Amino acid sequence: MQTSSDRHEYPAHWEADVVLRDGGTARIRPITVDDAERLVSFYEQVSDESKYYRFFAPYPRLSAKDVHRFTHHDFVDRVGLAATVGGEFIATVRFDRIDADGRPASSPADEAEVAFLVQDAHQGRGVASALLEHIAAVARERDIRRFAAEVLPANNKMIKVFTDAGYTQKRSFEDGVVRLEFDLEPTDRSLAVQRAREQRAEARSVKRLLAPGSVAVVGAGRTPGGVGRSVLDNLRAAGFTGRLYAVNTALQEKELDGVPAHRSIRDIAEPVDLAVVAVPAEYVPEVVTECGEHGVQGLVVVSAGYAESGPEGRERQRELVRHARTYGMRIIGPNAFGVINTSPEVRLNASLAPQMPRPGRIGLFAQSGAIGIALLSRLHRRGGGVTGVTGVSTFISSGNRADVSGNDVLQYWYDDPDTDVALMYLESIGNPRKFTRLARRTAAAKPLVVVQGARHGGAAPQGHAVRATRLPHTTVSALLRQAGVIRVDTITELVDAGLLLARQPLPRGPRVAILGNSESLGLLTYDACLAEGLRPLPPRDLTTAASAEDFHRALAEALADDGCDSVVVTAIPAVGETSAADAALAEALRSSAAAAPAKPVLVVHVELGGLAEALSAAASTAPQAAETGPGAAPGARFHPADLSPATVSAVAASDSRLIPAYPAAERAVRALAEAVKYAQWRLDAGEPGKVPEYEDIDEKGAARLIDDLLARGEGLTLGGEETGALLGRYGIDVHRSLPAPTPDEAVAAARSIGYPVALKTTAPHLRHRADLGGVRLDLADEEQLRRAYTELTELFGPPTVLRPVVQGMAPRGVDTVVRAVIDPAAGAVLSFGLAGAASELLGDTAHRLIPVTDRDATSLVRSIRTAPLLFGWRGSAPVDTAALEELMLRVSRLVDDHPEVVAVSLEPVVVAPTGLSVLGATVRLARAPLRDDLGPRTLPVV
Question: Is there a contact between 626 and 353 (Cβ–Cβ < 8 Å)?
Fold first, then answer.
């Protein structure tokens, strides 16, 4: 039980679980008065050399005074943190606030001296680097802006911890000691270092689960059947290359079908890297303890009865994760389907899938076991839907994803040499801000295709603990696309796109050549291309009499044409066509495509199973000889253990031009259209643009104004004058308007502004609803103004309800809306669309993450379906989109510079042929929310 120390309550929010460099986990928490025995035990296990480096002198043991000093903190001027594994200290760090002369001090002194001590057995695991991130965050919270550290010159490891952190620092040498001073304000370099370490650590933690040297299945029964025994049988059938153990308290045998059997993990003499837990939920805690004490590195928990079963199960799930992390273990699950790694060096099938998928270059992640089965099945099949075979590199079905999530798997896939394409089925995104960041980085290296389930349910599935978001699904989808994610709507589209991207090059543009032996099928393909925004060339009809040679020649000509970027081949069977003819056509297409490897080729077939199989066989990961060679039984199934590494490499090389075949034109074209958009995103990502600097922005003045306004209270919606003042600091002028609570005051306001004027209501139910008649424009004199005032009050009610205002007329143009909001899950988002009920009804709004670059602003204006209205549609005058883009960039800067600005709405923004006018604006302020993406590395809180 943690207790408070001298002056302040125990800061529980400083507690965190972190992933270390080797993939294990540790718990970081404040040191308290209860830790005296742990500290003494820890110190006894530190070598004399490490003690000398810490205290600059031999220091064999801690005195009672030392123990008191190192365990009594006020959590303000004196703070100590410990990294723990199994409840015991493995490293400590502390800071003491000092003044300019290096003496103990209190606030407002903003410098502190920092010192580390890491147990020798845990040095090299990145413990000190993680502790530095967390103690720096604590220091910033306590208004400490600078650390100083004195290090012996021979202590190279600790000097490297400081110098590699990426902070701005100063180094000096005096009296035989290296003195390092560094500012704690995060820099671009420190964030880059932190995220690179995060990637390596989280990737390693997943690799330990996917490439273990030994696996124990806890809960494997004597007789076939049952979850545990099924996993054990699947591991054996896959030909797992490491050591395999069966564990069950009821086992008396020494072996189970040739697998060494034990009653407890503790009874296994050798190390165990991965444990698959398949026992009832009430027995899992005991298993986790045994695994942790034995040094198991990770768990796959297939047991059910956790958060998916209700509140009691949710608490059981939280305790499971806390328990496992205590021992440095990560968890896939609970309620997981399992994991697969087809690498010939591993051949791991620690899942409930009875058949190992073929090895290949596609990584699969599914939060649902049922969807995982569907994905594996569709990729494994040769016919019936998507045809053409490619294989799987790794498969993870995370179940309730209480610990390891899609973010962790993305970290692993990012630099996994065996994965070229990543396919993900997500029912929830626990940390959208981080997922978007990781997705953008991954998509720059390899395609990432995502389908989201539970899009319209309004809540996360049972068992998934996720952050609340106020953004609609369409907005989240738009933000994912901005990050380079290929967003599809169905599992069928997921596989369609994955097969194309796995074995075909990216198209260089939208121009599509169409050829085939059916004029009608060619026209359907042509129409589908137009519907998907592609630019198809006129279809080339080879007639039903076309031979394989005719297809070969036509495809070669199309691929050689500089006017096309990809080719879709359509084919229908001829009457009486034989399997030999299918094989000949498949070989003709393959050889022609192989001669021009820079352009993708797709095939659309109509109930043409023979051609689909032939296309697969022409360049397949399937070991054909192993299935049908001499001595093979009729109908023998593929067995991954039959493949040597050399065979897999040869198969992968021959698979480089697999031609995917689709049973419908629209499916092939939809996959191709996604590839075209992704290829364009890759090009654009190479030149992301920049966030412009504007000399007239008064950032400091805006900060002072925000502080003054927030002094009134939280959740403040600014009045008109305050809104104008704040926006004005960022060069955004709001068109002047004056309240008109009476006809006479309306006339006075018009005289002050100057005719012609507009009279409009600002009542919430009528605001921005010109279609309801709450606005009167071009009022040229007092008579027209009074008449309009009378009409509005007669139609809609008294002035106290309508809240009328008078505003000067703006130049005519296109009415638009610019908004920005800080979402608690996704972060700051900028939105744009045309004003009016029609755009709202159709959801015609585009979104970008803040900060927005100049390229983002340009694409944002052009992303809505009604964009032609801005560019001279039907002979109208084009409006000043450059001014509109600048306005959006200024709003983006305001929100990015001042996180206290939690919402901005500019409506309407009238964009004229020259310039624009902001006619209405609202701004909402609140205390800046904490941004975990800028803080130290930490695993999600359970």
Answer: no
- Tell me how crowded residue 543 is: count the other CB atoms within 10 A of its CB: 10
- HSE-CB at 435 with a 13 A cutoff on CA atoms is 24
Does residue 88 contact residue 326 with C-beta atoms inside 8 Å?
Answer: no
At 724, which amino acid appears?
A: G
The rounded radius of gyration (Å) of the Cα atoms in the chain is: 33
Question: Please, which residues have CB within 8 angstroms of residue 640's CB and are 6 or more apart in sequence?
Answer: 238, 239, 342, 344, 347, 356, 358, 359
Q: Which two tokens stand for residue 116?
A: 């580390």
Secondary structure (3-state) at 69: helix
C-alpha separations of 724 from 480, 729, 768, 830, 919 in Å: 33, 9, 18, 19, 11
Phi (first) and psi of residue 296, to 5 degrees: -60, 140
Q: Which residue has the tokens 């502190």?
A: 112
pLDDT, tens only, 594-645: 999 999 999 998 764 556 566 655 544 333 333 333 333 333 333 434 434 4
**Calpha distance 922→901 (Å, rounded):** 11
Place of tokens 């883009």: 885
141: buried, middle or exposed (CB in 10 Å: 19+, 13-18, 0-12)? middle
246 strand-pairing partners: 217, 261
The closest of 912, 861, 913 to 889, measured between CA atoms, is 861
Distances (CA, A) of 51 to 72, 640, 702, 817: 21, 52, 50, 63
Give φ, ψ of 332 to 5 degrees. Answer: -100, 120
Q: What is the reported pLDDT for 655?
A: 46
pTM value is 0.84
**Of residues 391 and 329, which shows the higher confidence score?**
329
**Residue holding tokens 């791991």?**
348
**Chain segment 14-66, per-residue pLDDT in tens:** 999 999 999 999 999 999 999 999 999 999 999 999 999 999 888 999 999 99
CA distance 47 to 703: 51
Confirm if 623 and 643 have CB atoms less than 8 A apart: yes
Percentage of the residues of the chain whose pLDDT score is greater than 70:
89
Residues 6+ apart with CB under 8 A from 466: 428, 429, 430, 460, 825
- Given a contact cutoff of 8 angstroms between Cβ atoms, the answer to whether 243 and 237 are in contact is no
Residue 169: the pLDDT is: 83
User: How many other CB atoms sit within 10 Å of the CB of residue 556?
Assistant: 16
pLDDT tens-digit series, residues 125-144: 999 999 999 999 999 999 99
DSSP for 127-147?
Answer: HHHHHHHHHHHHHHHTT--EE
What residue type is 287 in one-letter code?
V
Q: Count of alpha carbons within 13 Å of 771, Cβ hemisphere only?
A: 7
Q: What is the pLDDT of residues 394-450, one digit of tens each?
A: 999 999 999 999 999 999 999 999 999 999 999 877 778 888 899 999 999 999 999
Q: Where are the beta strands (DSSP E) in 463-600?
A: 486-488, 511-516, 535-536, 540-541, 566-571
Please state, in angstroms and rounded to a whole number, the distance separating the CA atoms of residues 499 and 506.
Answer: 12
β-sheet bridge partners, residue 396 = 339, 365
50: its two tokens: 């490490």
Closest C-alpha to 301, from 278, 318, 322, 324: 278
Which residues lie closer than 8 Å to 168 by C-beta, 6 or more apart?
Answer: 182, 183, 185, 187
What pLDDT digit, counting tens, does each position of 558-595 carry?
Answer: 999 999 999 999 998 765 555 677 788 888 998 999 99
* Alpha carbon distance, N-terminus to C-terminus of the chain: 18
**What is the C-alpha to C-alpha distance for residues 615 and 602, in angstroms, rounded to an integer?**
11
Q: How many C-beta neighbours within 10 Å does residue 88 have?
A: 12
As a three-state string, the secondary structure of 419-453 is CCEEEEEECCCCCHHHHHHHHHHHHCCCCEEEEEC
Nearest to 674 by CA among 447, 358, 415, 340: 447
Cα 523 versus chain centre, distance: 39
Three-state DSSP class for residue 389: coil
Rounded to whole angstroms, the Cα distance separating 620 from 694 reads: 56
Check pLDDT > 80 for residue 660. Answer: yes
